[in-house]
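S.,

As promised, the 6-chloroguanine run. Input:
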Amino acid sequence: MRIDLVTIFPPLVAGAFEQSIIKRARDRGIVEIHVNDLREYATDRHRTVDDYPYGGGAGMVMKPEPWFRAVEHLREQGHPGPCVLLTPQGRRLDQALVRRLAAEDRLIILCGRYEGVDERVREHLADIEVSIGDYVLSGGEPAAVVLTDAVVRLQPGALGSSESTVEESFSEGLLEYPQYTRPPEFRGWRVPDVLLSGDHGAVERWRREQQQHRTRRRRPDLLQEQGDVSEATS
Ligand code: 6GU
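Predicted complex:
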């Protein structure tokens, strides 16, 4: 898979792709990540990427021309893939959407700034608008890091076998069970006896119960969605 990001702050995202699982996936050739500077596609000497809003009002609006030039340039290099605009007005990211995007051969990810992007970019350039949650970021860059991480870890071979289990649990629509390591007692807080019992069946049952209990208490909406899915497929 190839992912191209377009941003006015390349260093803000580039560092995140040089560590840990994403770095390893890049080194293994599982994913190719390119961070593109929007200013390189500006059309004037001052490399202007924003301008005053028509109709007045506070803040600046990102001009359309650099975005179109950047995406058209990237598309000329082949492998068309969806163009994702990151904006708080987008569809909220969840694991189902991550899976869909992870199945593409190529993604182009545009990092908008919070004040706004010219509407023609949304309407005629972006294939999908995505938000990572109901809160305000100054720009799409942190969201691009989140999206890229979630997509890369689903690429075949990106995860070691020990890293892949968490995904499975979330994909089943449940939160993870509580995890413990040594020591068996820390400041008077003991590891649950069942985990020390050596009874694998009992451990399995306990973990399953914990997952369900936790999900019901903390994220009842996930159980709801699970119901929706099974209703939709039955
Ligand atoms: Cl994608 N952009 C901005 N600016 N804020 C956000 C967001 C994106 N997702 C959640 N908040």
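The longest helix spans residues 200-218. The pocket of 6-chloroguanine is lined by residues 86-88, 114, 131-133, 135-137, 139-140, 143 (CB under 6 Å).

- D.
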